[in-house]
């Protein structure tokens, strides 16, 4: 997130939002084993990895379906092997002209000649490419990457692989990233905050928990809600999330108050506040107080640049 925010705040205004179709299901076993053999020489380990890939999938009718491609989802080895497969994308961009390996002088020269520069950001099979150039440059890079991924048996989704300008904004890893004008000024900054989908997810979890039996004490409900709200806000703390945190705060308050009113039909506001809010407005039961997302202070992702060691620097 820091990489994207750092570069899109400069001249990298076009973003290729990559989406790999059925990533874990379509990785070529032959291409994957070829990359593993380039780093691992122990034949016993290679045999175990190959046996793992070829183990098959047990259907509900107890028949075994052979696996000719892909890595079994849910296993402890699949995330590692998928990263090995997708490292073709990292290596291609790292060594391509205009990529992260290009010197500053070369990038300036390319810019003077109207050639694009670009930087990648990838987390597992979610990736995007920020481009300093034109939309046409971004389209060419998208097609090049599609060719690179095809060597591993992978395909880009034509419907979900988008080319977006940073002023329009994009969703990446649960966050919305967009350049906007700062209120009260003429300056424009790149902001990151929870996406609409992320907000819907947390409010859905709150709603499910507030549908449980009203025979339970309020303390039991709050003990289920608090870890959800605390974990969600901790995850989205880095960014401009203060306004977004106010939404689950208000939503959760309404859901809990409705739960209390279902528990005690006809209860007056005065009685409700006395019994469940300590004569205030915030729900609590004894020492258990409802977590307040709106009180969480936000921070920022710190851009570290080349201080993060690259695992590919010593690869020939």
From TrEMBL:
Q: Which InterPro entries match?
A: DNA/RNA_pol_sf (IPR043502), GrpII_Intron_Splice-Mob/Def (IPR051083), Mat_intron_G2 (IPR013597), RT_dom (IPR000477)
User: Pfam families in the record, alphabetically?
Assistant: GIIM, RVT_1
Q: Report the source organism.
A: Nonomuraea maheshkhaliensis
| Reverse transcriptase domain location | 1-177
Name of the protein in its database record? Reverse transcriptase domain-containing protein
């Amino acid at each position: 997130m820091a990489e994207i925010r750092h570069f899109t705040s400069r001249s990298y205004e076009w973003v290729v939002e990559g989406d790999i179709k059925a990533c874990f299901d379509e990785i070529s076993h032959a291409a994957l084993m070829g990359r593993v053999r380039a780093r691992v020489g122990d034949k016993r380990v290679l045999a175990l990895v190959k046996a793992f890939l070829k183990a098959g999938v047990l259907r509900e009718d107890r028949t075994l379906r052979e696996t000719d491609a892909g890595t079994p989802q849910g296993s402890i080895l699949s995330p590692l092997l998928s990263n090995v497969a997708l490292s073709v994308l990292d290596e291609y961009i790292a060594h391509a002209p205009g990529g992260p390996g290009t010197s500053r002088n070369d990038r300036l020269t390319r810019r003077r000649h109207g050639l694009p520069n670009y930087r990648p950001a990838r987390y597992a099979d979610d990736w995007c490419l920020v481009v300093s150039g034109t939309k046409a440059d971004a389209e060419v890079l998208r097609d090049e990457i599609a060719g690179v991924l095809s060597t591993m048996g992978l395909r880009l989704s034509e419907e979900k692989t988008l080319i977006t300008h940073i002023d329009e904004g994009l969703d990446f890893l649960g966050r919305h990233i967009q350049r906007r004008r700062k209120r009260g000024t003429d300056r424009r900054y790149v902001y990151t905050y929870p996406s609409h989908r992320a907000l819907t997810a947390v409010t859905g979890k709150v709603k499910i928990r507030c549908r449980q039996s009203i025979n339970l004490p309020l303390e039991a409900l709050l003990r289920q809600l608090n870890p959800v709200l605390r974990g969600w806000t901790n995850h989205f703390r880095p960014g401009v999330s203060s306004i977004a945190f106010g939404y689950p705060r208000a939503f959760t308050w309404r859901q809990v108050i409705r739960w209390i009113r279902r528990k005690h039909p006809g209860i007056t506001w005065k009685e409700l506040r006395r019994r469940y809010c300590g004569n205030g407005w915030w729900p609590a039961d004894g020492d258990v107080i409802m977590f307040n997302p709106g009180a969480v202070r936000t921070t920022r992702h710190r851009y570290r640049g080349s201080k993060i060691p690259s695992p590919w620097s010593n690869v020939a």
